[in-house]
Specification:
By secondary structure, this protein is mainly alpha-helical. Helices cover 65% and strands 4% of the residues. It is built from 25 helices and seven strands. The protein has a three-stranded mixed sheet with strand order 4-6-5, sandwiched between helices. It has a two-stranded antiparallel ribbon with strand order 1-2. A hairpin with an 8-residue loop joins strand 5 and strand 6. Helix 14 runs parallel beside helix 25 and helix 15 crosses helix 18. Bound molecules: zinc ion.
């Protein structure tokens, strides 16, 4: 068995160098490709041949590939050392270059969207793997305005809705929070403050939330104003000008999720809140209190502080994958073998974890900060799952290998489920087993229910804000949403009325959050199928992964034999959670 060491990654495969002659030559080649692409403009016509069209697409893919390499290098270099001035300045240079090239190549997608149906169908038929990418651009055709109108919207957005979201970021990123820890008042960022909601001390958990909402409520007038303007702008542009039926329909079209499917998903989430109510009651009991407070939702209840050596953890993850499918395990092994995993703890390194899939077939890069907690092992399985997904889709084009948002967490969460199941099967210590189940259920609440209720709030808030609701009225609406969500399963304090002002997605990407619920429930449903079916499920699962982002979610999920329009499908995911809840109660 190989011994795995915690090391830094290497980026050579991405870019041999970021300065000097060789690098300048790369930029000169890129410039030449972009000029060539610009000269394709006159060739674009409804009469052009399939081959000519394919050449233009390939060239645009080549340009995008170089940009992906450059941006990935910049981002990964910065992530390995966020204090590096050189990395920061390189990243700035690449951002600017990307924006310039985007503007110079924009004419293609505008032309494609405007093309008549017959010509588009003919060209799409000869576009091979690019088809879904092209189809995705065309989906917006009925909602696209004339070129002068689109230009006006773009220009006005820079200082309109984009400026408002930037303002929101600027205001909230400057917030600092104060919290007393062991008798000493510490000043901290939001990320630091947030870690205290999982603190073993009930007082610290409450204080962390109270401080969060104290700071946000101080600025509530301006944050509420920003929100109302964004929502009214969304309604004015998307509904009045473009003709969408409802505010959420815009997001659904971007996700390629039919409106009734999103509705069904949200309905099933709402109907299944009792499983989380049961979980909160269980937590209250374990914590020895009559009722959980909203402050205690993420309270730890475990006493076991089991740690895992890095080498052990990698072995466990790879072996778990191997038992499921050696093909999947081999993809994960590649990440380690190619030195694309940065798991070391270093000063200045970016926190958290991520997987960056740069190009089809190129081994993805994974960052983690491994300290040996059970959660770190899960994170390793999660991020390697993302890498597996990308490598399974290696045969697709640069525009279609990456899974679309609602499908993007499939392989990652599935790998986590495999690992949790295995750890549960092999662990004899009931306290460690309980910790594992608690981690899974905490995560399920945060990813499924909480996100679905954000979107339920947004549906009401978009309607009310257009009717002229004040910030106080939106806060009342939000409290109603929380009362519906929690029922009497916990004690909800009034300070949570400010929570929505602290959720950037609600401002920056309306209705985005249901994609999290979608992804997690999808995996749970798939996992249930695997448990029922056993080995015959494996090739079907591999097939789903191998689509990457080359077909619609409905098509890919249909391929697996599921119907995402059916409430039963989503219910299947909740049935798994009910089962985990049964296991948890049986341990107690
Ligand atoms: Zn993920």
């Amino acid at each position: 068995m190989a011994e795995f060491e915690q090391t830094k990654w290497t980026l050579n495969e991405l870019l041999p160098t970021h300065k000097g002659e060789e690098f300048e030559r790369l930029l000169a080649d890129l410039e030449q490709q972009v000029s060539q692409f610009e000269s394709c403009r006159e060739k674009l016509s409804p009469e052009m041949t399939g081959d000519e069209f394919l050449d233009v697409l390939k060239l645009s893919g080549d340009i995008y590939a170089v940009l992906r390499r450059l941006s990935a290098y910049a981002y990964l270099w910065f992530s390995e050392d966020t204090q590096s001035q050189a990395a920061l300045s390189f990243m700035g240079r690449i951002d600017q270059l990307s924006a310039e090239i985007q503007n110079r190549t924009l004419f293609f997608s505008l032309w494609w969207k405007g093309l008549d149906e017959e010509a588009a169908r003919r060209l799409m038929a000869c576009s091979g793997d690019y088809a879904y990418y092209l189809e995705s651009l065309r989906r917006f055709k009925p909602y696209t305005l004339s070129e002068p109108e689109e230009k006006v919207i773009n220009i006005k957005d820079v200082n309109g809705s984009n400026a408002l979201t930037n303002l929101y970021e600027t205001i909230t990123n400057r917030f600092t929070f104060k919290l007393e820890i062991d008798g000493e008042v510490k000043e901290m960022t939001r990320a630091e403050l947030s870690s205290y909601v999982r603190n073993p001390s009930a007082d610290v958990r409450a204080a962390a939330y109270q401080e969060l909402y104290r700071v946000y409520s101080d600025q509530a007038t301006v944050l509420g104003q920003i929100y109302s303007h964004l929502v009214r702008d969304w309604a004015g542009e998307q509904m009045t000008l473009r003709g969408f039926d409802s505010p959420i329909a815009v997001r659904n079209l971007r996700n390629d999720i039919p409106d009734p499917v999103a509705e069904t998903l949200l309905d099933v989430c709402r109907a299944n809140m009792p499983v989380f109510h049961r979980y909160f009651q269980f937590k209250a009991q374990r914590l020895g209190v009559p009722q959980l407070r909203r402050y205690d939702v993420y309270a730890p209840i475990g006493a076991a502080e089991k740690t895992y050596l890095f080498s052990e953890a990698v072995d466990q993850v790879l072996d778990t994958l191997d038992r499921f499918s050696s093909e999947l395990a081999d993809h994960a092994r590649r990440v380690l073998a190619d030195s694309h995993l940065d798991s070391e703890i270093r000063r200045g390194k970016r926190g958290g974890a991520f997987c960056y899939s740069v190009l089809p077939g190129l081994t993805p890069w994974v960052l983690s900060n491994y300290v040996g907690k059970a959660d770190d092992v899960r994170t390793l399985a999660h991020e390697l799952g993302h890498a597996i997904h990308a490598l399974m889709a290696a045969d697709h084009s640069i525009f279609t290998f990456h899974a679309a948002l609602p499908m993007a967490e499939m392989a990652s969460v599935f790998s986590e489920m495999l690992l949790t199941d295995r750890l549960l099967a092999e662990e004899n210590d009931p306290v460690v087993r309980r910790d594992l189940l608690v981690l899974t259920l905490d995560d399920a609440y945060a990813t499924i229910a909480r996100q679905a209720y954000f979107v339920l709030f947004e549906i009401d808030a978009h309607r009310r804000a257009v009717e002229g609701a004040t910030t106080d009225e939106l806060c009342e609406l939000y409290l109603d949403n929380l009362r519906n969500q929690f029922g009497d399963s916990l004690d909800l304090s009034d300070d949570f009325r400010w929570e929505w002002t602290a959720i950037p997605h609600i401002y920056e990407a309306p209705f985005y959050c249901y994609a999290y619920s979608f992804g997690q429930l999808l995996v749970l449903a798939l996992y249930r199928q695997y448990k029922n079916e056993g080995a015959s499920f494996v090739p079907r699962y591999q097939k789903i992964l191998s689509y990457g982002g080359s077909a619609s979610p409905a098509h890919i999920i249909g391929e697996a034999g599921f119907d995402m329009a059916s409430p039963d499908f989503w219910q299947g995911g909740f049935d798994v959670l009910q089962g985990l809840m049964d296991d948890l109660e049986a341990l107690a």
